[in-house]
Structures are given as C-alpha cells and as structure tokens.
Amino acid sequence: MNIVSTQLGNSLYNCVRSNLRWPLWTRSHFTYYPTRMGTGKRMNMFNAINNAMDLALDENKSALLFGEDVGFGGVFRCSVNLRNKYGSQRVFNTPLCEQGIAGFAIGVANTGATAIAEIQFADYIFPSFDQIVNEAAKYRYRSGGLFDCGSLTFRVPCGAVGHGALYHSQSPEAYFAHTPGLRVVVPRGPIKAKGLILACIRDPNPCIVFEPKTLYRAAVEEVPAEYYTSQLGKADILRHGKDVTLIGWGTQVHVLLEVAEIAKSTLNIDCEVIDLVSILPWDAITICTSAKKTGRVIIAHEAPLTQGFGSELASYIQEKCFLHLEAPVKRVAGWDTPFPHVFEPFYMPDKHRCLSAINDIVNF
Q1: Looking at residue 247, what DSSP letter applies?
Q2: How distant is the alpha carbon of residue 354 from its chain centre?
Q3: Alpha carbon distances (Å) from 1 to 11, 117, 295, 334
Q4: Residue 12 — pLDDT band, cuts 50, 70, 90?
Q5: Which of 162-166, 197-201, 258-262, 275-279 has the lowest mean pLDDT?
Q6: In this structure, are residues 340 and 302 in contact, taking their beta carbons and an 8 Å threshold?
Q7: Does one domain contain both 187 and 251?
Q8: CA 318 → CA 67, 293, 298, 324, distances in Å?
C-alpha cells in the first residue's frame, strides 16, 4: 500500500508538470481528470447541468422542469435561478412522491410536451420503478405507435459521495438496463453532462441520466457555451493502449485513468481506458474492437458485483471475442452488501483494487 501511494504521488507530480490548465481535483477515492474541448466557460458539473436545462427551457416553450425542491434550486443546486427566469408554471416543486413524479412526467410527455423530472436521489427511484419500466418504456409499443413518452428525461443523482451510506450512495443503472424502450446514460464530467442531457431531452425515447453526485463540484471543465449534444449509445476512448482494456462509467472512469498512469509508470503496462457513457444502448463495437486489440479486459463499477452491468459486458465480450482473449474478463466492483457508511473506503473499487486486477490479468 505504501509503495503504491508513493508511486501515485510521483505520477500526479508528473501530470501536474505536463502543463495542465488547472490541477487535477482529488477526492477520497478518485482524482478528477478533465476533458478538453477547446475554449469555453469554466463550470463545475452542476453549473453545466443548470446551463443545459436553461438552454432547453429557453428553446422549447413546452418544456417543464420539476421534482422535489427543484423550485428552490434542488439539493445540489442544479436548477438554481431557473424558476425565477421561467416562472413557477414551468419550474416547480413536487410532493415527496417519486411514483407521482414519474407518473406526472409520463403524462406530460404523452401530451407532446417536454418533461425534465428530477428524482432527488437514485436510492429513491424504486417507488417509481413500475411507472418508468412498465409505462414509460412500453408506451409506444403497447399503443402501436399512437402514443409515446419521448421528450421525457429523468435526472437522477447517484453513486458514492463519501458519507451517503446505504440510502444515498447506490448506483442502480443495471436495474434499468434490462428494459427495452429506455435510454440510460452516465456522464463523467461537465462537458459530457451538458451534452448528454440536451441529447436526452431531444431524443424520442424516455431517458434516464444518472449523475454521479460526487462530481457536481469536484468536476471542473471549460464547457462550450452554445447548445450542443453528445451522441447517445457511443463510448469514448479516453486513453489508447495495447495491453489491457479498462472499462468504466461515471466517477469510475477517473479511477481507471489514474490507475492507467500508475500501471504505465510502475509496471510498464499500457492500458486503454474507455468511458462506456451509455448503459442502454451500449457501444458493443468500440468495446469489442478494443478487447480484440488488447486481449485483456477489466470492467469496474461502484454497483455490487452480482448482476451489475459489468456482468452483461463480460458475458458479451467472452462470447464475441473469446478467441482474441489472453485471459478471462475481470470485474472490479462494489461488494454484494448494502452500501456501508464508515466502511465505504473498503467497499469502493478504488485504484488499489483496480491496479491489483491489472497485475493479475497480465500474469494470468
């Protein structure tokens, strides 16, 4: 552990020396690596989300934004000042009833208006599960194309934050990935968050944007001011490599970028890092191309190991890329327990566990 910590310190020192515009932001279990897209306005992730919803409300006069405490700006301040700008008829609070929020959002979208609904924490999305999975996702199919719930976007803060414990730390993306008719995405930072939200708002299918809440303030980038969208269903290759493919999404992407640097500097292992971005649908072409190139794949996510979305990826890669693999696909994930409070550091798929997995897969 001490050796890895020393190596990590040297790695970060070299990164800061490489003319980065601002230092990497370090949190309890990850170091933030910003995306660069030329010039823009410096924003953290909640600023970028606020900007995206501002643009959407301005462009589409039928758009409504609602959720628990949304009218006041939301607990994470993502909707701050939007009620003042667009009025309480378009930006408003709802009762503390996730099932009601989802049902109302479906009704709004079904009439042809645009619904942007916030579920305050991913851990509390489960009362609305039936509405999202059995109603929103199936509306077009069950009506033979007469009705749909396009223009329906759920924003859902998710993931570990350092002190959230079992009711404010979960990552439930895999539950929804089993549902045809939905789109599910997870941004890794401000630029991606803005682009994905605007893409989801325009998409003709109901969408869920799981937003890693620890990134709301930790993630800072130069975000383009104009209206733009990010392609749904497309993964991003953030670092090219030839020895091992590392796949993650959300906050975990930054853990893997840090681990890739450590692996290169200490073990001379060249890792390719992929941000899956889209859980449903997911980019099988990019993933399989990388798997066939490196022959070794590690998938990491915060959700529990059993039936986490890494299971689907691992199964597909084993099936489609088997003859190209040098070792079985490995997963590094949360443990099969409720999310802990004081034991959170031991639960997380941190850089130490991921680095150990790289060493194991290379020496298989």
Answers
A1: E
A2: 19
A3: 15, 43, 28, 20
A4: very low
A5: 162-166
A6: no
A7: no
A8: 41, 14, 12, 9
The tokens for 187 are 């941004």
What are phi and psi for residue 275, nearest 5 degrees? Answer: -90, 115
Residues 217 and 45 sit within 8 Å (Cβ to Cβ): yes
What does each C-alpha distance from 129 to 3, 65, 100 come to in angstroms?
A: 45, 20, 11
pLDDT tens per residue across span 302-321: 999 999 999 999 999 999 99
Is residue 268 located within the same domain as residue 351? yes
Phi first, then psi: give them for residue 31, nearest 5 degrees: -115, 130
pLDDT of residue 163: 87
The active-site residue out of 29, 118, 135, 168 is 168
Strand 41-44 to 220-223 pairing = antiparallel
pLDDT of the residue at 96: 96
5 DSSP assignment: H
CATH number of the domain bearing residue 279: 3.40.50.920
* Nearest to 207, CA basis, from 237, 191, 238, 229: 229
Residues 61 and 94 both lie in one domain = yes
Q: Is there a single domain that holds both residue 211 and residue 246?
A: no
Last residue of a domain, one of 193, 223, 253: 223
Domain that includes residue 251, residue range: 236-363
Higher pLDDT, 244 or 24: 244
Same domain for 291 and 193? no
Domain count for the chain, please give it. Answer: 2
Active site residue 98: yes
CB 116 within 8 A of CB 151: no
Q: Active-site residue 68, yes or no?
A: no
In angstroms, the CA 301 to CA 278 distance is 14
- Structure confidence by residue, pLDDT tens digits, 118-154: 999 999 999 999 999 999 999 999 999 998 988 999 9
Which of 29, 68, 98, 261 is catalytic? The answer is 98
77: left (phi over 0), alpha (psi -120 to 50) or beta: left
Question: Alpha helices of 295-337 — where are they, by DSSP H?
Answer: 309-321
Residues 206 and 240 in one domain: no
Residue located via tokens 């996510």: 301
* CATH code of the domain containing 215: 3.40.50.970
